[in-house]
Design brief:
binds magnesium ion, 8 helices, alpha/beta, binds adenosine-5'-triphosphate, 263 residues, 35% helix
């Protein structure tokens, strides 16, 4: 199915399985997963370590081909690496010798974008993510959170309609992570980009998303899809205090079998 509510899905994963073969063994990472993501939707993906979450994002980006089934991005079947997406990884992966602004502009250089347009867009994103004043700082002069903001700006520079994020805030301390969640939520609302976020944080998955996809142990199957019934505008503390937030996080924790209450 590649349509949702009569519009073309931003991302459609149709009955996809992925098997990795080595000389010693065959691993099924993903088993018959289907998922439709509507344009402008924010979908979080959670599941046990090693269940196939990164594999799922690689399929959408075209870095990996499914063993069976198909993936459609913006109405077109994914057959190879796609350049019309943005990707943010767990580590910011910045070039140490380039300033924050020039790291963001790397995206434009790789794509041959006009430098005037790229410069304007970079300045807009720098402001949107609170990096003003740090444009000329080198990565080692930035905090971990700031480095991730640079990575986010770089991923958004070419205005991708789909943004894939794989544990983007996993290396940050809890408070910085909350702050990044608030900023990402605001950036998402301002840009209207479709986002697929892989995270190990249950709170983050719910705070940010319209829907949370809970995957099983490998091979990943969709265990349950949680609709997040929270208002569009989400003040952090007020959102945490809402009963809908508590209900969604409790349900996901149950599904994942987590017992500690921490995430
Ligand atoms: N290129 C590969 N070759 C062989 N096996 C692979 C390859 N990539 C992933 N796998 C296997 O597929 C399974 C899923 O891996 P994946 O990286 O998608 O998990 P994940 O859910 O992202 O885990 P984590 O939460 O720890 O990041 C794992 O068992 C992994 O060993
Ligand atoms: Mg992973």
């Amino acid at each position: 199915m590649s349509t949702t509510l009569g519009t073309t899905s931003a991302v459609a994963i149709n009955d996809v399985s992925v098997r990795f073969r080595s000389k010693r063994a065959e691993t099924t990472a993903i088993e018959q997963v289907s998922l439709d993501v509507a344009p402008g939707e924010f979908v979080s993906i959670v599941g046990p370590s090693g269940c196939g979450k990164s594999t799922l994002l690689k399929l959408v980006s075209g870095l990996l081909r499914p063993s069976s089934g198909s993936v459609t991005l913006l109405g077109e079947q994914v057959r190879g690496p796609r350049h019309d997406i943005g990707f943010v990884f767990q580590r910011a992966a910045l070039l140490e010798w380039r300033s924050a602004r020039r790291n963001i502009l790397l995206q434009a250089e790789m794509r041959g974008m006009s430098s005037a347009e790229a410069g304007r867009r970079a300045d807009e994103l720098i402001e949107m993510t609170g990096l003003t004043g740090f444009e000329n700082a080198l990565p080692h002069e930035l905090s971990g959170g700031m480095q991730q903001r640079v990575a986010l700006c770089r991923a958004l520079l070419h205005q991708p309609r789909v943004l894939l994020m794989d544990e983007p805030f996993g290396a940050l301390d809890a408070l910085t992570r909350e702050q990044m969640n608030v900023e990402l939520h605001r950036v998402w609302r301002e840009t209207g980009t479709t986002v697929l976020l892989v995270t190990h944080s249950i709170a983050e998955s719910v705070y940010l998303a319209n829907r949370v996809i809970v995957l099983t142990q490998r091979p990943a199957l969709v265990k349950e899809v949680i609709d997040v019934e929270l208002p569009g505008e989400r003040d952090y503390s007020a959102t945490m205090a809402r009963p809908e937030f508590a209900a969604a996080t409790a349900r996901i924790r149950d599904l994942l079998g987590a017992v500690t209450g921490h995430d």
